[in-house]
Write a structure and sequence with these properties.
Blueprint: H1 3-7, E1 12-22, E2 27-36, E3 40-44, H2 51-58, E4 66-71, E5 74-75, H3 80-84, E6 87-90, H4 102-109, H5 118-127, H6 141-152, E7 159-163, H7 171-184, E8 191-196, H8 199-205, E9 208-213, E10 216-222, H9 223-229, E11 231-235, H10 242-245, E12 248-254, E13 257-262, H11 265-272, E14 277-280, H12 283-292
Parallel strand pairs: 3-8, 3-9, 6-7, 7-8
Antiparallel strand pairs: 1-2, 1-4, 4-5, 9-10, 11-13, 11-14, 12-13
This protein binds adenosine-5'-triphosphate (ATP).
GO molecular function: ATP binding; ATP hydrolysis activity
Keywords: ATP-binding, Nucleotide-binding, Transport
Organism: Cohnella fermenti
């Protein structure tokens, strides 16, 4: 059991109601998502699922077609600047001026935040082995991520939102980043939302998982609930009658048998325990087999 999920009851840091955003070839459709204060929520989804689009909408960086975003209980619309002071944001692409030194970039950035903590910023720079004199252009991808994190963490933000913070990072720094996030959570008021398609990151530290699939929220549950509810079923093709197929949200069939994802583990066990292998689904299984869907026939 995850004590943090069970032991604390937070308000919602982010409330998204019926959010719709349409582009010519993609739509985020009617997404409703409440992110609990005091927990780590992982926003997971394949490339192009709409994670960045949703994050930009929750930061007021893009205007939705319909729906509402509330941060810390207040409507975002019209209060973007005040609310954003309470948020540390790490974008998927760096928003730094490449020609500046870290120190000069800080002089541009810090005045936007009333609670800027210079000592803390310096401490993060030291910890991440970043020299204030280094030019941003000279930094590797991993170093830029560290710098973005140092900025995001140095103005007493209550909510940290990160878009794919681990993408393109080597395993050593990915691990270090996850450790830093776990450390931040020692402060019970801290809330973290981060998007990723690297599901093992979530296995390690997320309390809640929100899964976006083709612009729709497929589920949002505690990690424990997800692992209780979902299972992988493997068996012989002869088992696949219409009733059995109805159990599955995704299926892959081959000449040697089938592999399927159910979101109703108990029912799958009741019907199939004697005839098929039923195992814990990893988040990767869930993403992969949800994308496969269930064919219309059968
Ligand atoms: N400004 C835009 N104009 C048109 N289409 C857009 C725009 N921004 C995003 N899209 C499209 O919306 C879809 C979702 O993009 P988004 O970046 O939100 O996905 P994502 O889940 O963050 O993907 P990734 O993991 O690859 O970063 C993509 O098909 C993308 O091409």
């Amino acid at each position: 059991m995850n004590e943090r999920v069970d032991g604390r009851r937070g308000e919602f840091a982010i409330e998204i109601r019926s959010l719709t955003k349409r582009f010519s070839r993609f739509a985020l459709e009617d997404v409703t998502l409440n992110v609990k204060q005091g927990y780590i929520t992982g926003l997971v989804g394949a490339n192009g699922a709409g994670k960045s689009t949703l994050i930009k909408a929750m930061l007021g960086m893009s205007v939705p077609l319909a729906g509402e975003v509330r941060l810390f209980g207040e409507p975002l619309a019209g209060k973007e600047d005040a609310l954003k002071e309470r948020i540390g944001y790490v974008a998927d692409d760096s928003h730094f001026y490449e020609h500046l030194s870290i120190g000069a970039m800080k002089s541009v950035y810090a005045p936007f935040y009333r609670k800027w903590d210079e000592r803390l910023f310096r401490r993060y720079l030291e910890r991440f082995e970043l020299s204030p004199k280094a030019t941003i252009r000279s930094l590797s991808k991993g170093m830029k991520m560290k710098l973005a994190l140092a900025f995001a963490l140095s103005h007493q933000a209550e909510l940290l939102i990160m878009d794919e913070p681990t993408a393109g990072l080597d395993p050593v720094f990915r691990r270090e980043l996850l450790d830093i996030l776990a450390e931040l959570m020692l402060d019970e008021r801290q809330t973290i939302l981060f998007s990723t398609h690297i599901t093992t990151d979530l296995d390690r530290i997320a309390d809640y998982i929100a899964f976006l699939h083709q612009g729709k929220l497929a589920f949002h549950e505690s990690k424990e609930e997800v692992f209780d509810r979902y299972a992988i079923v493997r068996g012989d093709l002869s088992l696949l009658d219409a009733d059995v197929r109805r159990l599955f949200v995704g299926i892959r069939e081959s000449s040697v048998g089938f592999e399927a994802l159910t979101s109703n583990r108990m029912e799958a066990e009741r019907l199939l325990a004697e005839y098929a292998r039923i195992e814990r689904a990893s988040l990767e299984d869930i993403m992969y087999l949800t994308a496969k869907g269930v064919p219309a026939h059968g």
